[in-house]
Design goal:
The protein has helices at about 5-30, 45-55, 85-95, 100-130, 150, 185-200; strands spanning about 35-45, 65-75, 75-85, 135-140, 140-145, 160-170, 175-185. The chain is an alpha+beta fold. The protein has a single domain, classed as Chemotaxis protein chec, CATH 3.40.1550.10. Strands 1, 2, 3, 4, 5, 6 and 7 form a 7-stranded antiparallel sheet that branches. Strand 2 and strand 3 form a beta hairpin. The longest helix is centred in the middle third of the chain and has 31 residues, at about 100-130.
Length: about 210
């Protein structure tokens, strides 16, 4: 497993916070309410440990709504945004409005959640790629509902590690916690670490952006 120094870890957290900040601005326009997002912590885990962590955080029936996109370029990764299944409909209702009947709301859930995933994942990855000075190209979003092991298996079953971001997602008085998992093999993790090292070397003596 790749280990980051404290400075490298803090730099990566800050880079992702810039990305989710951009996503929050875009979401605010969609729901017409103030949206704030932050990434208080990141961790590198095995896929099994990541699945256990997600299960421990879930409530209700334990199932998750997952939106995934595959990225290639500076490094390769499967990025998956996950919310508890029971929370996804709350998010969709905020996007669509209270007047839509429940049956119609459920029919639009996949499309609406895919749009949210596309906004948030592309903001995280785009901000990271721009600040590191390298490009990442993403696929179209893919939507799935299932348990944590099923969602994390979207990236196949090869030997990989998971870079886990816990995201605090606040819409006015509602707070919804979600997670983003970046599933990478060891080569991709080493590439990411090297990009962070290069970024810090370019910014030695200056504050992080």
């Amino acid at each position: 497993m790749v280990r980051l120094s404290e400075l490298e870890h803090d730099a990566l957290v800050e880079l992702f916070n810039i990305g989710v900040g951009q996503a929050a601005s875009a979401m605010s326009e969609i729901v017409n309410e103030t949206v704030t997002m932050s990434v208080p912590a990141i961790s590198f885990l095995t896929r099994g440990a990541a699945a256990k962590l997600l299960t421990s955080r879930s409530s209700g029936n334990g199932r998750l709504c997952g939106i995934s996109q595959h990225y290639t370029g500076a490094f390769e990764t499967e990025a998956i945004l996950m919310f508890p299944e029971e929370k996804s409909q709350e998010i969709v209702r905020l996007m669509i409005g209270d007047s839509m009947p429940l049956a119609e709301l459920s029919a639009m859930e996949q499309e609406a959640m895919s749009e949210i995933g596309n906004i948030l994942l592309n903001s995280c990855v785009g901000s990271l790629a721009n600040l590191l000075g390298h490009e990442l190209q993403g696929s179209l979003p893919d939507y799935q509902v299932g348990y944590s092991e099923e969602i994390l298996s979207l990236a196949g079953c090869g030997e990989t590690a998971v870079l886990m971001l816990h995201i605090e997602f606040v819409i006015e008085r509602q707070q919804i916690a979600g997670d983003v998992a970046f599933i990478m093999d060891m080569t991709a993790l080493q590439d990411l670490k090297q990009h962070i090292v290069n970024f810090l070397q370019r910014n030695v003596g200056g504050a992080l952006p």
